[in-house]
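Let's study a protein:

___
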Amino acid sequence: MNALGLHGFGGPDVPRVLELPEPQAGPGQVRMRVHAAAVNPPDVLLRTGVT
């Protein structure tokens, strides 16, 4: 599974695509397929270090 990881503050070069193991659903849980995701303005401010 691919995921976007942030390990520090900075510009668009900071986020890295990470390869993670496929999650497994446990008892009473479900897995959902995500077709799209978005980034909110506060997420961008957090990434750049603005408080």
Notes: The longest strand covers residues 2-5. The chain has one domain: 1-22+36-51. Strands lie at 2-5, 16-19.
